[in-house]
Amino acid sequence: MYTWESISRPGTIDDLVADAHAAGYPDMTVRRIHDWIAKGLLDQPRLRTRRRGSDKAEHSANQRRLLLLLLDKRQQVTHLSSLAQVPLAMWLWWDGYMPTRQAQRAWVTWVGRGRRNQEVARDGALGLLEQVGHQLATPTAQARFVRITTELGNGKALTVRGRAELLDAVRDVMEPDTVFAASGLVRALGPAQTPMTVETVVARIEAFCAALGRTLDGKVDAALLERARAVYRASMADYLAERGGLAAEAGQLADLFREPSLQEQFDEAGRELLFVLGMHLIHRRPQSQGQGQGPSTAIPV
């Protein structure tokens, strides 16, 4: 069986097609390779020039291996945009495998537009509701929370009125009146060092909103993406050092702090980068525009 371990040197686009065919993917074509390059699934090849004329451009050995990984993962996903998380994850975790220019295109592909970015927002809303929703929250409150949070996926700025509505929707699912109205208590989930309250959940949603809006406006350049990666790596290092203690104190959120499988890490790479990018954008605003500090980026998303 032809696998990525068989590849040890750069190759032309014809070599990439041959790699795919040898690995059992006969539908791969030159045209599809070009499409995947445009989407950031693969990087642009390196041009080779000679004194007279030029040779065919070459793709690195890493890109040839990446193609085989993408072809394997393609069988597990519904949308091609989901594949963009593979190069994104490799760029996020390791230096030297994927250039930032490729990560930029992969990022735009993963976020998408129209129905795609609404799916990203809805998936995030449902996941967050599962984490923080109270068991006695009404179906109406849950549906409102998902609707409002998903609508923020259109990239529009969160207004003062919109934030107030969001705050109300989050409170309805986290602190339903039937349980909390009379007592006046505030619900806090997770470890004492990084409690998840209504305000921190709102800040998290604001982060997603800020990152989506910036991306849809075409304003996430290489420098900003690299700063977000630096923040992610620093916060992840802190989180890994503290994970054991956080898990012990997390209560019903303990599952958030378990060690994820490699597949789960790939599947969450886009959302993790989205959250960290959003928190970076929020925290670098002038203080007069800020809405509070929000949750620590050391909390997994």
Describe the structure.
There is one protein chain. With 301 residues, this protein is mainly α. It has two domains: 4-82, Orthogonal Bundle (Multidrug-efflux Transporter Regulator, Chain: A, Domain 2), CATH 1.10.1660; 115-289, no CATH class. Helices cover 59% and strands 3% of the residues. It contains 13 helices and two strands, in the order ααββααααααααααα. The chain has helices at residues 13-22, 30-38, 61-74, 80-83, 85-93, 100-111, 115-132, 139-151, 160-174, 177-180, 198-216, 222-249, 262-283, and strands at residues 46-49, 54-58. The protein has a two-stranded antiparallel ribbon with strand order 1-2. A hairpin with a 4-residue loop joins strand 1 (46-49) and strand 2. The longest helix is centred in the C-terminal third of the chain and has 28 residues, at 222-249. The two termini are 37 Å apart.
Structure summary:
This protein has helices spanning 13-22, 30-38, 61-74, 80-83, 85-93, 100-111, 115-132, 139-151, 160-174, 177-180, 198-216, 222-249, 262-283; strands at 46-49, 54-58. With 301 residues, it is mostly helical.
